[in-house]
Design a protein that fits this description.
single chain, mainly alpha, 6 helices
């Protein structure tokens, strides 16, 4: 099952907190809690909850329905990003979110390569039309 990027971000925040508490990390080097504040993680998880719920309803969906789900998750993530001064998701986070979307679709029986090809898109470009992050 595809792992939400927010899980690894939470793990990184927790690991950093442990290192700070143990004195093995200089506080000046700590950045994870600032990069991934709880409000960002909670907002991202809420978007991914909705996305996963919609995926469960995609059995035998047509391309328009699939792209509708992709559009909604991307627009919702855009809103999260906007709420965090357009800096919620940096390059690594963007890649992980796109990979999560792709892997989740694949796990629900969607042939991403065929879907993209039918619409003149590259394999990794199904979110590009709507993505601002």
């Amino acid at each position: 099952m595809a792992e939400r990027p927010s899980k690894s971000w939470r793990d990184d925040v927790a690991k950093e907190a442990e290192e700070l508490a143990a004195g093995t990390l200089d506080p000046e080097c700590a950045c994870m809690a600032g990069m991934f504040p709880e409000k960002l993680l909670t907002s991202t998880d809420a978007v991914l909850d909705t996305f996963e719920g919609e995926l469960a309803e995609l059995s035998e969906a047509d391309d328009a329905q699939i792209f509708g789900v992709v559009e909604r998750v991307v627009l919702a993530l855009n809103a999260v990003n906007e709420a965090h001064n357009e800096s919620a998701y940096e390059t690594d986070e963007r890649e992980k979110l796109c990979d999560f979307i792709d892997q989740s679709l694949i796990e629900h029986g969607i042939d991403i390569v065929a879907l993209a090809t039918r619409h003149g898109l590259g394999r990794y470009h199904i979110t590009d039309k709507w993505r601002k992050w």
